[in-house]
């Protein structure tokens, strides 16, 4: 049957690539859901528009960001942190769409981290030339939970390093629908995104959009 044929192709394309102990790429894991994800992103962004935040060193980030869920990641002159309110509107961040939370939970489970319940979803928009320098994700209270990262739109090169900034990095190409999961012994590895190359991806406005799901608050939710 035609359905079975497509299912076969799908499962073949959903290749799991282990980067290191605790970090892996689920190639194409979100590919069947990208239209729904983009529609939901549009609704979040209508309520909490993309903005380019200031770093603590007062540089303007090249990546534009927004958030949904109980907590949102912020950067300003005071530093990096999670907060329940959007500082631009004074309102709570938009609710995390059910589709987002379910995808993140399924991807984490497929990567060996069952029971992932994200309370924060950072939405990154990369325009041509935007990049993210090497960093660790360490503003969360609980490093026991993994991070789930969904790539949409234009392809990008993810840089994956070690536990110290000066260790060598691996270049990992990521495309529309790929999901990276990061946890356990890999949770604090340095990583970044190389400057986005020019390309056409009309559904995302010729940009790359990345969703990163985290458990940012305390493990018991208090
Ligand atoms: C990005 N991602 O791919 C930025 N962090 O646009 C991250 O900074 C990231 O993809 C932790 C784990 C996975 C990630
Ligand atoms: Fe990160």
From TrEMBL:
Annotated SUPFAM superfamilies: Clavaminate synthase-like
EC class: oxidoreductase
EC code(s) of this entry: 1.14.11.33
Cofactor: Fe(2+)
Alphabetic keyword roster: Dioxygenase, Iron, Metal-binding, Oxidoreductase
Protein residues bound to substrate: 73, 80-82, 139, 165
MF (Gene Ontology): broad specificity oxidative DNA demethylase activity; ferrous iron binding; oxidative RNA demethylase activity
Binding residues annotated for Fe cation, in chain numbering: 135, 137, 191
Domain of life: Bacteria
Stretches assigned to the Fe2OG dioxygenase domain: 117-217
Cofactor comment: Binds 1 Fe(2+) ion per subunit.
GO CC terms: cytoplasm
Residue sites binding 2-oxoglutarate per the record: 124-126, 208-214
One Gene Ontology term from the biological process aspect of the record: oxidative RNA demethylation
Family annotation (PANTHER family): ALKYLATED DNA REPAIR PROTEIN ALKB-RELATED, NUCLEIC ACID DIOXYGENASE ALKBH1
Protein name: Alpha-ketoglutarate-dependent dioxygenase AlkB
Biological source species: Candidatus Accumulibacter appositus
Source species taxonomy: Bacteria, Pseudomonadati, Pseudomonadota, Betaproteobacteria, Candidatus Accumulibacter
Gene label: alkB
């Amino acid at each position: 049957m035609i359905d079975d044929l497509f299912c076969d192709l799908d499962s073949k394309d959903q290749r799991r690539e282990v980067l290191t102990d605790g970090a892996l790429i689920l190639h194409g894991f979100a590919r069947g859901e990208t239209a729904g994800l983009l529609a939901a992103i549009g609704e979040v962004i209508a309520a909490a528009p993309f903005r380019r935040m200031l770093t603590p060193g007062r540089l303007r980030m090249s990546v534009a960001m927004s958030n949904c869920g109980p907590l949102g990641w912020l950067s300003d002159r005071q530093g990096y942190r999670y907060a329940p309110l959007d500082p631009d509107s004074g309102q709570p961040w938009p609710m995390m769409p059910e589709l987002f939370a379910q995808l993140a939970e399924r991807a984490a489970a497929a990567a060996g981290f069952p029971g992932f319940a994200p309370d924060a979803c950072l939405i990154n928009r990369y325009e041509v030339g935007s990049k993210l320098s090497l960093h660790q994700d360490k503003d969360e209270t609980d490093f026991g939970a993994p991070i789930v990262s969904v790539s949409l739109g234009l392809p990008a090169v993810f840089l994956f390093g070690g536990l110290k900034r000066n260790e060598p990095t691996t270049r990992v190409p990521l495309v529309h629908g790929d999901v990276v999961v990061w946890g356990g012994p890999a949770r604090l590895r340095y990583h970044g995104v190389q400057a986005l190359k020019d390309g056409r991806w009309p559904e995302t406005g010729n940009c790359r959009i990345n969703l990163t799901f985290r458990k940012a608050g305390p493990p018991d939710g208090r």
